[in-house]
Amino acid sequence: MGNGLDPESESGPMVSAAHRSKIEAYVASAQEQGARLVAGGRRPDDPELQKGFFYRPTLFATATAR
C-alpha cells in the first residue's frame, strides 16, 4: 500500500475522504449483519499513509446476500 504513482505499490489511496467513509460504513454494516471480518477492515497504521485516504484491503467470511 502506498503512493498510487509508485510502481512498487500494489494498492493506492481512495479518491476522497468521503469515499473512504462510505467503505467504512459498508464494512460496519457487513459486520452488523453477521459477516466475519477475516482481514483488513480498517485504516492502515503506517504513519506515512496517514495523509492519504488509505484503507486496508478487506476480506469477509460467512457473509450472505440480502
Commentary on this structure:
With 66 residues, the chain is of the alpha+beta class. The chain contains one helix and two strands, in the order H-E-E. It has one helix spanning 17-32; strands spanning 36-39, 59-61. It has a two-stranded antiparallel sheet. The longest helix is centred in the middle third of the chain and has 16 residues, at 17-32. The chain is elongated and about 35 Å long.
Write a brief caption for the model.
Helices cover 24% and strands 11% of the residues. The protein is built from one helix and two strands.
Sum up the structure in keywords.
single chain; 66 residues; two-stranded antiparallel sheet; 24% helix
Task: Give the tally of β-strands.
Answer: 2
Secondary-structure class: alpha+beta
Output mean pLDDT. Answer: 92
Helix share, percent: 10-25%
Q: How is the largest sheet built, in terms of strand order?
A: 1-2
Distance between the termini: 31 Å
Largest sheet: 2 strands, antiparallel
Strand coverage percent? 5-15%
Q: What's the gyration radius in Å?
A: 13 Å
Specify the number of helices.
1
